[in-house]
Design a protein that fits this description.
Radius of gyration: 16 Å
Helix content: 25-40%
Number of helices: 6
Order of helices and strands: EHEEHEHEHHEEEEHE
Strand content: 15-25%
Largest sheet: 8 strands, mixed
Shape: globular
Distance between the termini: 29 Å
Structural class: alpha/beta
Length: about 220
């Protein structure tokens, strides 16, 4: 089992990642900007043996991030802006996380980006390529920059790229391809995404790869 820290744990995806990792018995630290807002998963939600903790850390605060990642085996980034503009969040986080992880000797990063970072993927539905992608191009460009910064580092990285995220019950029926959207795939549930990440903590199948999830 791993000692994991999840950035963006107060978000809808991050909170589920914490829950699912605890369920599998990992020890998990929730890294959040506002600890007072943190609501840890209940024992009923996560009946595993993992221990949970919370720490205050803004992903753009280099000193706070360096202190937070100390002693962990894996960093999970589930950060995301509230709207469709990144304002440099992903690339800033990449620089901060890489510096902190290399300085603290934390080897592994699993980061949630999006299947949309591959603008021209022919496996996307036509309407997604032509109608949706232009509206969020700045967001995807910053995600792509995040991936580039991390790839150039010594970190053992995995970029998990979901299709359009759904706040629905898990299906378990999604497909996974490396660096390409499963043909015609349009969506995936957040819980399926979180469970994939939690399993990857143990399985370590996707080192230096970009598993792309879609139903």
């Amino acid at each position: 089992m791993s000692n994991v820290i999840v950035f963006g744990a107060n978000g809808r995806t991050g909170h589920l990642v914490v829950r699912e990792a605890l369920r599998l018995g990992h020890d998990v630290t929730a890294a959040v900007r506002e600890p007072a807002r943190w609501q840890p998963p209940t024992p009923e939600d996560s009946p595993g043996t993992g221990k949970s903790a919370v720490v205050r850390a803004d992903v753009r605060d280099a000193a706070a991030v360096r202190s937070a990642v100390e002693g962990h085996d894996v960093v999970v980034s589930a950060i995301g802006p509230p709207g469709r503009h990144a304002h440099g969040l992903y690339s800033d986080a990449a620089r901060t996380l890489v510096s902190a992880m290399e300085g603290a000797g934390v080897p592994r990063l699993i980061a949630v980006t999006s299947g949309g970072v591959h603008h021209g993927d022919p496996n996307f539905p036509w309407w997604y390529r032509n109608l949706v992608t232009p509206l969020v191009r700045e967001l995807y460009d910053d995600m792509r920059l995040m991936e580039t910064i991390v790839r150039r580092s010594a970190v053992d990285w995995t970029f998990v790229r979901p299709a359009r995220l759904q706040d629905e019950p898990p299906t378990g029926n999604y497909r996974v391809l490396d660096a390409s959207n499963p043909r015609g795939g349009r969506k995936v549930t957040r819980t399926d995404l979180a469970r994939f990440i939690a399993r990857e903590l143990d399985e370590h199948r996707w080192s230096h790869a970009a598993p792309t999830l879609a139903e």
